[in-house]
Write a structure and sequence with these properties.
The protein contains 10 helices and 7 strands. The longest helix has 27 residues, at 165-191. The model has no long low-confidence stretch (mean pLDDT 96). The chain has helices at residues 12-20, 34-46, 61-74, 93-114, 138-141, 148-160, 165-191, 209-223, 233-244, 262-266; strands spanning 2-7, 25-31, 50-55, 76-82, 118-123, 196-203, 255-258. 51% of the residues are buried. It is an alpha/beta fold. It is 50% helix and 16% strand. It has a single domain (2-261), classed as Rossmann fold (3-Layer(aba) Sandwich). The protein binds NADP nicotinamide-adenine-dinucleotide phosphate. Residues 7-8, 10-14, 31-33, 36, 56-59, 83-87, 99, 123, 125, 203, 205-206, 208-211, 214 line the site of NADP nicotinamide-adenine-dinucleotide phosphate (NAP).
């Protein structure tokens, strides 16, 4: 039986992606809060899907390794949606980088070990597009797999230069999500020959728990969208499920921007 794993699957876009995927598979939802996962799994089961849960903090490589092993014990891991993430209001810069950036390294690498073929979709953000090209530290990005501490130190040095604390975490978030796009592309070219397709998807401001928390600061972004509104979790769930569906087999090595036109409208 096919297994679809969703990190951050207990809520928001991750859960909606599960609801939009074909139901001929087992869903394994993970996140840090068992209660949330339990509720989400009950919802999927009530809709006729098979759902399992496992707690996993994606910033801990050992836990991601265990998650991948458990997923493989349930069946053939064919779809991985890496939606786990924290936003600027939720954590300090180091934590944001550990969860959003290093978490993506752990998920892609640990799941690649147990997958024979399939799809990995890493969820980024349209914040990734807000960094001027000159500020994107690609050399530091290249350190993430083998020299984690140096990777973190280099990115954190950029964040401490900013005195306003929200802007500093905002920069850490944008850097972490720019890294997700970069790393998903790198993974696509490394894993493609094994039949594992990888891409990233960047939402704009979406009305999930996280989006509601950030909407004060994100209001400027909404003015640039075509319809002057936030996205809904259902819309994003559908877009993510489309990217993660194995029938969409030629979609690899790119980022899909699903932000209501916000980046395009702001001219960035
Ligand atoms: N909503 C937006 O406006 C927006 C915009 C652009 C990008 N995004 C990205 O979209 C993704 C999904 O977010 P969402 O909007 O659907 O918000 P959400 O409902 O808050 O979902 C995020 C999920 O990630 C889990 N999570 C957080 N830290 C984790 C960790 N260290 N390990 C494992 N799971 C973790 C959370 O559960 P626990 O707390 O229980 O672990 C939560 O279920 C995130 O990557 C986010 O950065 C969101």
């Amino acid at each position: 039986m096919k297994v679809c794993v969703i990190t951050g699957g207990g809520s928001g876009m991750g859960l909606e992606a599960a609801r939009a995927m074909p139901n001929d598979r087992i869903f394994l939802l993970s996140g840090r809060t068992q209660q949330k996962l339990g509720r989400a799994a009950e919802q999927l089961k009530a809709e006729g899907r098979q759902a399992f849960t496992m707690t996993c903090d994606t910033s801990d490589r050992r836990q991601v390794h265990e998650l991948a092993r458990y997923a493989a014990s349930l069946g053939e891991v064919t779809n991985v949606i890496n939606a786990a993430g924290l936003s600027p209001s939720m954590a300090a810069p180091e934590k944001l980088l550990r969860v959003n950036a290093l978490g993506t390294v752990y998920v892609n690498r640990e799941f690649a070990k147990v997958m024979k073929r399939g799809v990995i979709v890493d969820i980024s953000s349209n914040s990734a597009y807000q960094l001027p090209k000159l500020m994107i530290p690609k050399r530091a990005f290249a350190l993430a797999e083998k020299h984690e501490q140096e990777f973190l130190d280099r990115l954190l040095r950029m964040c401490v230069l900013i005195k306003d604390s929200y802007k500093s975490t905002g920069l850490a978030y944008a850097l972490s999500k720019n890294f997700v796009v970069w790393y998903a592309k790198k993974s696509a070219f490394e894993l493609g020959s094994r039949g594992i397709r990888v891409c990233s998807l960047s939402p704009g401001l979406v009305a999930t728990d996280m989006g509601e928390l950030e909407k004060g600061e994100g209001a400027a972004m909404l003015r640039h969208t075509a319809e002057k509104r936030m996205g809904t979790p259902e819309e994003l769930g559908f877009a993510i499920a489309m990217a993660a569906d194995e029938r969409n087999g030629y979609l690899a090595g790119v980022d899909i921007l699903v932000d209501g036109g916000s980046v395009s409208g702001s001219g960035s």
